[in-house]
Automatic annotation (TrEMBL):
Organism of this sequence: Lophiotrema nucula
Protein name (record): F-box domain-containing protein
Domain of life: Eukaryota
InterPro entries: AN11006-like (IPR038883)
Length: 383
């Protein structure tokens, strides 16, 4: 049999000889190309490129990255049908095939490739890409490596993003705790044929606040980072950060206003219309026996007082919102579970201003905490 020699009636295995002059790192690489079995050990020949010293391989990697003008790689999900794919489309990721040869080349070339290559992907595809390319488990975000991402916002909200939103906490966790990942928000180029005005894009500027960016008085997004918000991200105090761009139309009940009050809107912190007491002299006197109720629009309208008690008013909440949910052990006293509606707490306004979420242009910020999972106890049935 090959690999065996019979001497004096006994079978001896022939161990393959390793080439001399290899370093410890090269011997480790050679060990990855060996296939072990219970019967014998077969040594696979090392490829010629991996026989080169590590310094020469790094020079080749750097040369491949500097050879061409690397553009942003827009990652778009394509269907499996061949007639809907672009066959002869030029690649925007040169030498990306080096990451698909073997594990050794992938581990060596991939960090350099991600450091140079800017990647653009849809906001809804961020979690899937990050989970497939990085190890985003809590505590391991510091080992994610390099990365440069731009999360694109579609002009029309896709169906999978409607109503439920997108949890971007994995992306924020990777950005805040890795130290080697750059992230930003933008728009698709084909949707901005007449030019992109970043000063009037309140949606993107509000999302930049999640990255700790500070909005100056002129409406520009500065390079300064809010240290208090980044400390919250680095402390792993959050459970979810859900961005809902197209919320579902819901009707929430508000207690009816007593006589002599009018419905006013508490802006910009609450999306609901709330009853605020006003002096009787602040409004024209109503006819005898008719209470005065001011609608949300002008001019004033008079309504006949019903004999039965008034039903609570219903208001539709249509404003997009960002829901920040803390972990149960990191909650504060003024927070509510799962951001259930409660009277506006004055400490929330101070928290929003301290964390850089005051005076939002597009989104409303809701802050709460998730319910503790440790309180749930399982009972076993006696069989």
């Amino acid at each position: 049999m090959p690999g065996q020699v019979v001497l004096r009636g006994r079978v001896h295995k022939i161990q393959p000889k390793r080439p001399k002059g290899l370093s410890a790192a090269d011997r480790e690489i050679m060990g990855q190309f060996s296939t072990r079995s219970s019967a014998s050990t077969t040594q696979v020949a090392l490829p010629g490129f991996l026989r080169l010293p590590g310094e020469l391989r790094n020079q080749i990697y750097n040369y491949s990255l500097e050879d061409q003008d690397i553009k942003q790689a827009l990652l778009v999900h394509r269907p499996r049908r061949a007639n809907l794919r672009h066959r002869h489309r030029p690649t925007s990721r040169p030498y990306y095939g080096l990451t698909q040869v073997c594990r050794v080349l992938r581990n060596e070339y991939r960090p350099l490739h991600l450091k140079k290559q800017e990647i653009g992907l849809d906001l809804t595809d961020a979690n899937g890409f990050i989970a497939g390319q990085y190890n985003t488990r809590q505590g391991d975000a510091g080992h994610c490596g390099n990365g440069n991402f731009t999360f694109a916002l579609n002009k029309t909200v896709p169906d999978k993003e409607k109503y439920i939103g997108v949890d971007i906490w994995p992306a924020l966790n990777m950005w805040a705790n890795s130290g080697k990942v750059e992230a930003g928000f933008g728009r698709y180029m084909h949707q901005n044929l007449h030019g992109y005005d970043h000063l009037n894009d309140g949606e993107a500027k509000d999302l930049y606040r999640l990255l700790g960016r500070i909005i100056d008085d002129n409406g520009n997004c500065s390079t300064l980072i809010n240290g208090q918000w980044r400390a919250v991200l680095q402390g792993l105090k959050l459970a979810k950060v859900i961005v809902v761009r197209a919320p579902r139309r819901k009707s929430k009940q508000v207690p009816p206003a007593p006589r002599g009050t009018q419905m006013v809107q508490v802006a910009p912190y609450s999306p609901l219309f709330r009853a605020e007491p006003l002096p009787i002299t602040a409004a024209p006197r109503a006819p005898p026996g008719v209470p005065f109720i001011q609608t949300t629009t002008s001019p004033l309208q008079w309504f006949q007082a019903p004999t039965a008690p008034q039903h609570p008013a219903t208001v539709q909440v249509l404003q997009p919102y960002i829901r920040i949910l803390f972990k149960y052990q990191h909650r504060e006293s003024w927070m509510t579970p799962n951001c259930t509606y409660a009277p506006f707490h004055p400490l929330l306004r101070l928290w929003l201003r301290k964390m850089g979420f005051a005076d939002m242009e597009f989104f409303e910020v809701q802050v709460g905490y998730t319910r503790s999972s440790s309180r749930r106890t399982a009972t076993k049935k006696n069989i």
